[in-house]
Amino acid sequence: MNRRLLLGLSAVVVVIVAAAAIVLVTRDDGDGAAPAAVALADEQRALLDSAEPSPDCPDEPATPPDDDSLVALDVLRVDDQNCLMASTEYLPAGEVGARQAELLAEDGVVAAGVVGEVSLNEDDDRRDDQWTLDRLGAEEGSPDLPWPDGEGAVLAVLDTGIDETHPDLGNAVIERRHYPGEGEHDPKGHGTHVAGIAAARRDNGGIVGVAPRVSVLDVPVLLKEADDPGRPSWAVGLVWAVNHGADVANMSFGGPIPAEPNVEEAHSLEVQAAAVYFAVTNDVVLVASGGNCGQPINRCEERNQQENPSSLPGVIAVGAVQEDFDLAGYSTRNEFIDLVAPGGGDLMNTVVSTYPDGGYEGIGGTSQAAPHVAAAAALIRAAAPEASGDDIAQALLDTADLDPLDEEDRLGLGVGHGFLDIEGALDQVLAGLPSDMTPSERTHAVFVRDDELVAFDGDRLTPVMTLDPGAQVRWVEWSADGSLLAGVVGSRLFAWDGTSLVDEACGWCSEGLGAFLEDVEVDGATGDFIVGMDYTGALTWYDVATLTETAATTPVFPADAVGTKTLLGSVGGQLLVHESGGAQASERVWLLDPASGTAELSADVMGSAQAPMAASADGEQAAVVTGYGACSAEVTVLETAGLTEVAVAPVPEDLIVEAVFFNGEELYATLAETFSDCSALQPAGLWRLDGGQWQQLSEDTAAARPLEGMDDAVEQGWLIAYPGRGGFEPPLADGPSAEEVGAVTDGPWAMPTRTEVPWP
User: Fold this and answer.
1) What is the mean pLDDT of residues 565-588?
2) Given 185, 190, 244, 267, which residue is catalytic?
3) Residues 6 or more apart from 27 whose CB is under 8 A from it?
4) Annotation marks residue 367 as catalytic
5) Is 159 a catalytic residue?
6) What is the pLDDT of residues 728-751, one digit of tens each?
7) Is 682 exposed, middle or buried (0-12, 13-18, 19+ CB in 10 A)?
8) Region Disordered: which residues (predicted)?
9) Given 367, 570, 580, 608, the catalytic residue
10) What residue ranges do the domains of the chain occupy?
11) Residue range 76-115, pLDDT digits in tens
């Protein structure tokens, strides 16, 4: 069942209030009628649909009067500028009904009601490590995560507030919804704890959040546990979060929903349902704790009660499991729970996270389970910004897994679709994107800026690794979909998946080049591998995820191929190997099949390899740079199928090749003027091979790569390195500026493009 559907539900109850009809709708998941949850009239939905979220929408928090007898009446209205405004009026209880009637008669008013306080869904305890990430699929004890880090997405945390000075939250909080009379930013500690589970920064000696680079909106809301009356209701806070760019909102609190609401309760539900509708129709994924009412405790009016907001249509309700995957005893067991996530439980195991004043606490509850799911939604949105909120929410439900859970728990209520599967949900969303929007059709690039290797994914820049002084990037290569970068820096092999970096020392790295092969068979195993060749010609194969050695093979060449072998790279799923010296009058390149380990096809070339090879995007052509010294090099273009020669182009006199690359079907090169010893003196610009001859396109370009599929009004262009600076041509409207790119001191390197990208 799609949780985003706000209509089409069962059991309609109508309550008449003055002249207005409030329609209450319940859901039926197959177990009979459920307690009532509010739906909206067509006129209300039409008003909400006309509202456009914007941070410029008016938001004037009302100062509460010094009179505890007054009640807070929340009003949602759409103004003349198509803003949904959430405001609060303080009135005597006896005047609320009349004022509601006045408001509901005004044009633009969607709903008006007294939204009651909600309570935190937490139980206190302590423990010493993050078992939660281990259970979600991270390598035990490792700060590296097997999913994207959430950079670019915005998560709103509606809670007790956030202590943004905590070292683990660093620059996480980008904006706060202030309110009159506020004091400490998190007097309770609950919001800081929830924010750390989702967004704690990596590599600072603390914990690691599920999405350690997501941006956070701090939205303090009215809670029974918080004494400050100036806080807005969670419905008002949610409207603010939507207007300020939230992609996801986490709500780790809840209150009971009455089975038969009275008039006042019905108006309250209407305000909350309107806020939820506004959020989900503007692509915000809503996640809430499902409640701690599985066992009789003081806060719950009834055991396993229906909770608000978690049971409102459009909100993902999260239950909690403990470390052994058993459903926690406190976790609410009803039909409204959608899935479960780590929350701690009956065996005194809790979730360790950030706490005010730089501390850490172990706390357990569905409050702790919910931010795991909210962070998962945020990192999916960051990885697939084109995906709708519906797509993300549905993927989280579709991929949740019952198998890890206790068999008895699977048969009962309270686990929904099963245990959160972050990677499964991400894969489903990426697989479902329209073909013209998939990340695999973007050109990914990487370059060196100062002492840092930086990646560009078509939208933003992301640091990959810090380079040791003097370490040179010898080889880099992207996977076909841009999801993984492999390379050799100095004497170390590395692999980066957009979030996690692994690197290992390797014997061949200081002298040779590597190759990246996807979906190939090696030594009886099929998968994705990085391979390197040592001076003896032996091949070492590495698992791309861990860089563990998986196989060592010795290729088989014909008997007359007695020269020294050097790996040049991969093309069309095969390896290209250079042979030089020995009894050969001329050097050759060989095409090596990784499955059989044999080389049969060869082509003659001139001299030894002088620069890394290039392969076309379709794998049908390869270009190699060879010569008897850098000053006498030539570029040979070969057709992969038969290793037949397409073109041979000597490098212009007094120039050497820095790099060659394909732009569509055309071959380009960046060249450099030379010293007398044939080392590079200064850039000689960008060149293109036309009819077997090199034609100069630019005089001052040090290096460049074409880019396709960018998240910008500019769909294609170039990332260019000039002496002392770098930038995009044409400039990007919403992407990184030239200042952010900085001085490109090496590279860029990018995936080959599929179509010709015009040179500026």
Assistant:
1) 84
2) 190
3) 9, 10, 34, 37, 313, 335, 336
4) yes
5) yes
6) 999 988 788 888 899 999 999 999
7) exposed
8) 49-68, 740-760
9) 367
10) 119-431
11) 999 999 999 999 999 998 999 999 999 999 999 999 988 8
